[in-house]
Protein 1
Amino acid sequence: MRQTICWKPCSASTIKDSEKGEKAAVKAFFTGVPLQGRGMLKRYRYRPVGNEKLAMEEGTSFPILTAVNGYVEPGETFRVVAVCPDSEDGRRNLGRLEEELDALCAGKGSVCAQLEVVPAQKSERVTDQVAVFQRLIELVEENDELFACLTFGTKPQSQVLLMAMQYAYRIKRNTSISCILYGQVDRSTGQDPESWGACVYDETALLQLDEVVRILAERKISNPKAVIDGILNL
């Protein structure tokens, strides 16, 4: 049975190996919870761009579930972390995430051991963003395989989530980042939501690019184009 945990500033949660006292490798999926009002959150069949593992036959309101569907093996246990706005819409959409997650797990025979909720204040103050960053870092354990969706949340919240993934990768032993994704809905076909299409993009290379740019800057390389082009062509 899945455990839902609402995080507070000083909370901590780990999944430990009972015999060795070390945490076993676990896939951890991070996402924001959307702010759409009642009746506005729609399901789409997302077309994968840049990563066929994100292909999913069923429609979903949450692009992170394309990664759960593609990367979690039948019978495997994993975790989901949701940054949830402190609002009625946020809490209602969190319930939708739970429902879709339960349905996906039932179909795959997999187990979401924990849905961990990180509350996000309505304010965009830096102090509030830093609090979310710190809580996200607490939720990453050694050996975790990380996945993150940047689709939902305010722009500062998406930046905080990406920073948390990068920081955890650098400081947590044996932690890896497998996929950073972004879902986009194409509304150019008209005002009828039934006519809209959707894509899910694998943006993981942007993290690699960030690391390389940082190193190139440290080495005072003024024209990094050749190096960056090489990375993008991998």
Note: The CA atoms of residues 4 and 115 lie 5 Å apart.
Protein 2
Amino acid sequence: MNRTKMVIGTLLVSMTISLIVMSIGIADPNIDDNCNDDGCHLESEYTLNINQTSVSVAPLTNFQIETNGTGSDVTIHIFDILDNFEFTYLPNKNVNDGDIEDKDPDVNEVGFILNITSPSVLLIYTIRVIAKSNSGDSHVVYDDIEVNVGNSTTRSTATTDKDGGNRDLWEDEHIILNSIGVLASVGVLVVVVALSIKFFVDNKRNARGSSP
């Protein structure tokens, strides 16, 4: 009897843990792929303003974007993976509150002119400008600039959801981890159910074998 209680208790604990892991791993089903739902991430305290979100330029041409961001220990970052690293930027680094490039004297505010040189390849590119905490907080606010080089009709192969707003930069990694968590939880549940069935079947057989 004690062995039976111990096994049953172990199975119940295993199933409880599996359900908890699964509930953590499953993303909110009401959030779409672009993560535009307000419940997707904590609302960012940061703001970002850029003076242009659509630019048409000739190849190898310099143009400027006015950039302003606010928030605690704010920094402005260019997420240049989306443009396939084809553009040249000055400043070519993150601009933090109080840096020499920061022309806004107020605390927790960054303002500067971003000088950009377009690539030679004629495509429609996306430049993503991000405002976030300099301490590495993943909750950010961003905006995209569509840059058409040479009046192209072909879009760059770099992927983007094209929607500005609050977003976790590592959302894709989170989706992968969530998927792994769900699959692992389902696997554990399947094993627990199979072991439970086997245990009770063996227990019933043993009971029959020991009966007079």
Note: The helical segments are 2-25, 171-210.
